[in-house]
Structure formats: C-alpha cells, structure tokens
Amino acid sequence: MSANKLRLGPLPKTETVRFSFNCSKALQADLEQYATLHAQTYGEPVDAPTLVPHMLEAFMARDREFRKRRSAHGSRHGA
Q1: Which of 15, 72, 6, 71 is CA-nearest to residue 44?
Q2: pTM
Q3: InterPro entries attached here (predicted)?
Q4: Is the confidence at residue 22, as pLDDT, over 70?
Q5: Are 38 and 8 in contact (CB under 8 A)?
C-alpha cells in the first residue's frame, strides 16, 4: 500500500440505485485510471462505475453553497 493516500478513501458499503450518465472518452479514461490507482492504494479491486457515486458524494459534501441551501430547506434529500 502506498504511503500517499488518494483523496477518495476506502469505500463504505452502501445501498445503491441504478443511475447512468454520459461522459467524454477522456473522463472515462481518467476514471478508469483513478480506479486502478485506488485499487493499488487500498488493496481492494474496484471499477470506475463503483467509484463515481462516492466521488460525487465527496464533491457535494465539500460544496459549501450546496450544504447551506440544503440546510435552509431542512432536508438532506429534498422534499
């Protein structure tokens, strides 16, 4: 395992739903490369589609404006 950790840490076990999106070939390649690095870093096999929801959650958790507006509406998942 590498001493340098990736920003996205080990993945938690969560309930999932199916959600699909389109992305550029360059983004797909980057996501696949990130998945490879993640697997090497944490010793757990993982593919890019598995990582994407965790990346989006991390992104949204760090978005101050989103958190502020979500709190103003009193709901984590909308109404």
Answers
A1: 6
A2: 0.71
A3: DUF2274
A4: yes
A5: yes
> DSSP state, 77?
S
User: DSSP assignment of 14-74, as one string?
Assistant: -----------HHHHHHHHHHHHHHHHHHSS---HHHHHHHHHHHHHHT-HHHHHHHHHTT
Q: Which carries the bigger pLDDT value, residue 40 or residue 15? A: 40
The whole-angstrom separation of Cα 74 and Cα 70 is 6
Q: Which amino acid is at 73?
A: H
Q: Where are the domains of the chain?
A: 25-72
Residue type, 1: M
CA distances from 14 to 17, 19, 24, 54, 71 (A): 10, 15, 27, 10, 23
